[in-house]
Design goal:
Blueprint (H helix, E strand, L loop, with lengths): L15 H12 L2 H13 L3 H29 L3 H6 L5 H43 L3 H8 L3 H19 L2 H29 L4 H9 L9 H14 L6 H7 L7 H32 L17 H11 L2 H37 L4 H21 L1 H15 L2 H13 L2 H9 L9 H26 L1
Helix pairs in contact: 1-8, 1-12, 1-14, 2-10, 2-12, 3-10, 3-11, 3-12, 3-17, 3-19, 5-6, 5-7, 5-14, 5-15, 5-16, 5-17, 7-14, 7-15, 8-12, 8-14, 9-12, 10-19, 12-13, 13-14, 14-15, 15-16, 17-19
């Protein structure tokens, strides 16, 4: 089990499972439950799934090891961890700048993500009031008024801040070990329920049986690579900060692999639920695909198609709507706590401030930005989402280049040998330092280039 080093007062995760579930929780967000099935549905189902699984191992996993290793090596927030990779004074300055750019990613993402999280809370409450027959309340929760969006966003922030203020063990770890198993149980229930509906089997076949002709499609490969990359929040600082709370005794590649497997399992299971649900909805007369085979309303799939399916299934459908939106809210929260943890860790370490007020002040500042977005939704929401998910993504490339080129090979290997003495004896240990130096930057640059294309 991870113990706090006597030489350092830095808080560490209390258990391996706690770390794996917290880090996987940071990675598991709406990207897995909303983005992944949508991408799979748009890109030939099974073919996309197959390429995605390969890309996770080829691109995302080696990068995850780098990011977690940087955090554990630095034992600090992203800015100071990046500075610790080199003794060169210019290198330190550049490293700090990369850390600051990296930190801007979770803060910018949180600004629009919390609005979506707020919608989920409102849909969840709307599903509850629907079952209770409270029509006025249901109409308000499912509407899109500014007041309703504000209520949802602020509620989502309050929940996030309450968890983060508890610290690593009492906040993040405690809640991740409760929320993540709940996620899997709810998914299981939903899958069993949906598979009893007519049309579900066709959806399952479309999802699990690949059309091998599509596997080599350039668009599909880039979409799968991008999805795998964003799914594990590479370059988003969450993995770096969680890595810094990991004991030196732990086997880092093994931990990274466990996080990758849990994250991929959630994406895979969400596809098992959402794809059959789409085909059930099509049987009920809900239009999902356009004439040319492209997805209609891909960005609002979760908010339009699935509720329509639940509505058409009577009371049981309404109850499962509650389960579904609870599931999405949990997924959103496990990600938002890691996004807020990044700036909170920086400020509390740099200025020696107490965690509770720091969490509320920083959470409040980002919340103010979200409120501005809510009031100017049409002009700002899409813009902030695009800036956060596309224009700040080169941060991942900078982390990759820094981890591959600036951090010397000997120091990198020494860090990984701390919990895994036999690291360089296996093929992964022999290949990894060269791979992250040459192959990863090319793959990351390709994903970024494709997202602008």
């Amino acid at each position: 089990m991870a113990q706090v080093d006597s030489s350092q007062s830095r808080e560490h995760f209390g258990s391996r499972l706690g770390f794996i579930l917290a880090a996987a929780g940071a990675a598991v967000g709406l990207g897995n439950i909303w983005g992944f099935p949508t991408q799979a549905a748009s890109n030939g189902g099974g073919a996309f799934l197959l390429v995605y699984l390969v890309m996770i191992l080829v691109v995302a996993f080696p990068m995850l090891v780098v990011e977690m290793a940087i955090g554990r090596h630095g034992q600090a927030n992203p800015v100071d961890s990046m500075r610790s990779l080199t003794a060169n004074s210019i290198g330190k300055r550049v490293g700090a700048a990369v850390g600051w750019i990296g930190l801007s990613v979770p803060s910018a993402v949180l600004a629009f993500y919390s609005i979506v999280g707020g919608w989920l809370i409102c849909f969840l409450l709307g599903a509850v009031t629907d079952v209770l027959g409270m029509e006025t309340a249901t109409a308000w929760f499912k509407g899109s008024s500014i007041e309703r969006n504000l209520f949802g966003t602020i509620t989502f922030y309050v929940l996030t801040i309450l968890i983060v203020q508890g610290g690593v063990k009492e906040g993040i770890e405690k809640w991740s070990t409760r929320l993540m198993p709940a996620l899997f149980i709810l998914f299981g229930l939903l899958f069993i329920y949906i598979m009893t509906q007519s049309g579900a089997m066709e959806g399952l076949k479309h999802y699990l049986i690949p059309d091998f002709e599509k596997v080599m499609d350039r668009k599909l490969i880039l979409a799968a690579m991008g999805q795998g990359f964003f799914s594990l929040t590479i370059g988003g600082c969450s993995m770096l900060i969680y890595g810094s709370y990991l004991s030196k005794k732990e086997n880092l590649p093994k931990m990274a692999m466990n996080v990758t497997l849990v994250d991929t399992a959630v994406a895979f299971i969400s596809g098992l639920v959402v794809m059959p649900a789409m085909f059930v909805a099509m049987q009920k007369g809900v239009q999902i695909y356009a004439e040319d085979g492209s997805l209609l309303s891909s960005d609002t799939l979760v908010f339009t198609v699935l509720p329509l399916m639940f509505d058409s299934l009577g009371l049981l459908g309404q109850l499962f709507a509650i389960v579904f939106f609870l599931l999405l809210t949990i997924a959103a929260l496990t990600s938002s706590i890691s996004m807020l943890e990044c700036p909170v860790a920086l400020v509390s370490e740099r200025f020696n401030t107490k965690r509770t007020p720091t969490s509320w002040v920083l959470g409040g500042l980002i919340a103010l930005f979200s409120v501005v977005i809510v009031y100017n939704f049409g002009e700002l929401f899409g813009l902030v989402a695009m800036v956060a998910t596309q224009y700040l993504q080169p941060a991942a490339l900078l982390f990759c280049l820094f981890g591959g080129w600036v951090w010397n090979r000997h120091s990198k290997i020494k860090e990984l040998e701390q919990g895994c003495p036999e690291f360089t004896q296996g093929w992964f240990g022999k290949l990894w330092p060269t791979y992250v130096k040459f192959v990863c930057p090319i793959l990351v640059a390709t994903v970024i280039w494709a997202s602008f294309g």
